From TrEMBL:
Keyword match Signal: yes
Protein name listed in UniProt: Transporter substrate-binding domain-containing protein
Signal peptide residues on this chain, from the entry's feature table: 1-17
Keyword Signal: yes
The organism's place on the tree of life at top rank: Bacteria
PROSITE patterns assigned to the protein according to its UniProt record, in alphabetical order: PROKAR_LIPOPROTEIN
Pfam family, one: SBP_bac_3
Ranges for domain Solute-binding protein family 3/N-terminal: 21-237
Biological source species: Campylobacter canadensis
Keyword annotations of the record: Signal
Length: 237
C-alpha cells in the first residue's frame, strides 16, 4: 500500500513539474492595449490573453520588453508568445506565425494644430515619428517620410510638442489617448491598415498547439458579453 501511495505522490509531483507556464511578451507603452497603471501591467491585450488562457486552462506569465525586442526574444526562446498590439505583415510572417485577428487596426497621423499638414500625401520628406518596429514604421517609409523611430511613443509625442517632428504615426486608438492629453495635437489623416490587423504571434513552426488553443478560445470569446464589456472598457470598436 505504501508503494502505491509513493508512486501516486511521485506521479502528482511529476505532473505539476511538467505543467507549462507560457511566457507572454508585452511592450507596456501602447495604451489602451498595453500599459502600466499604478505600477501594474494593464490594458486590453493583458486582459484578453488572460481570459483566453483561463478558458483553455493555460498558465501564463508576463515579460515586459520594448516593442522592437519582442520578435528577437521570441526567436531566442525567452518568451513563448507575443500579445502586444502586433500587426501581421509579410516581413514578420517570415519569422513568426500569427493567430487569428482580434482587432482591425487603423493608423492615425497626428500633428500640432498650427501645422499646415492636411493629408498623408504631404508627409513625403517630412520628419515623421514612429514606434520602432511597428507597422506604422513600414507604412511611413513607403510614403517617403523621413523616419524618426523611438522605442517609446511618449518620447515621440514630446518631440512633436517641441516641434522636432512634423507628425507622428500611431495606431488610431493609441493616438486618440495622446490627443486627449495634449490639446495642441490633432489628427490630420486616418488610414485603414492594408494588412490583417492585430494578432498574437508565436515562433514560426513552434508552439502550434498553443496557437491553436488561442484561436479556438478567441473564436468563442468574441461572441460573449465579456468580450463586448472588455472592448467597451478600453474604448475598442
Amino acid at each position: 500500500m505504501k508503494k502505491i501511495f509513493l508512486a501516486l505522490f511521485v506521479f502528482i509531483l511529476s505532473a505539476c513539474a511538467d505543467e507549462k507556464v507560457y511566457k507572454v511578451g508585452i511592450s507596456p507603452d501602447y495604451p489602451p492595449f498595453d500599459m502600466i497603471v499604478d505600477g501594474k501591467l494593464s490594458g486590453f491585450d493583458v486582459e484578453l490573453i488572460s481570459a483566453l488562457a483561463k478558458m483553455q486552462n493555460i498558465k501564463i506569465s508576463f515579460s515586459t520588453l520594448s516593442f522592437d525586442a519582442l520578435i528577437p526574444a521570441l526567436k531566442a526562446g525567452k518568451i513563448d508568445v507575443i500579445a502586444s498590439g502586433m500587426t501581421s505583415n509579410e516581413q514578420r510572417k517570415k519569422s513568426v506565425d500569427f493567430s487569428d485577428t482580434y482587432y482591425l487596426a487603423k493608423t492615425s497621423y497626428i500633428k500640432n494644430k498650427e501645422s499646415s499638414l492636411s493629408s498623408i500625401d504631404e508627409i513625403k520628406d517630412k520628419k515623421v515619428g514612429v514606434q520602432l518596429g511597428t507597422i506604422q514604421e513600414f507604412d511611413a517609409k513607403k510614403l517617403g517620410a523621413k523616419i524618426v523611430s523611438n522605442q517609446d511613443p511618449i518620447a515621440l509625442i514630446l518631440m512633436l510638442n517641441n516641434n522636432k517632428l512634423d507628425a507622428v504615426a500611431l495606431d488610431a486608438l493609441v493616438a486618440s489617448e495622446f490627443i486627449k492629453k495634449n490639446e495642441n495635437l490633432v489628427e490630420f489623416a486616418s488610414v485603414a491598415n492594408e494588412e490583417e490587423g492585430m494578432q498574437f504571434a508565436v515562433n514560426k513552426g513552434k508552439n502550434q498547439e498553443l496557437l491553436s488553443k488561442l484561436n479556438q478560445a478567441l473564436a468563442e470569446f468574441k461572441n460573449t458579453q465579456e468580450f463586448k464589456d472588455l472592448c467597451d472598457k478600453y474604448g475598442i470598436k
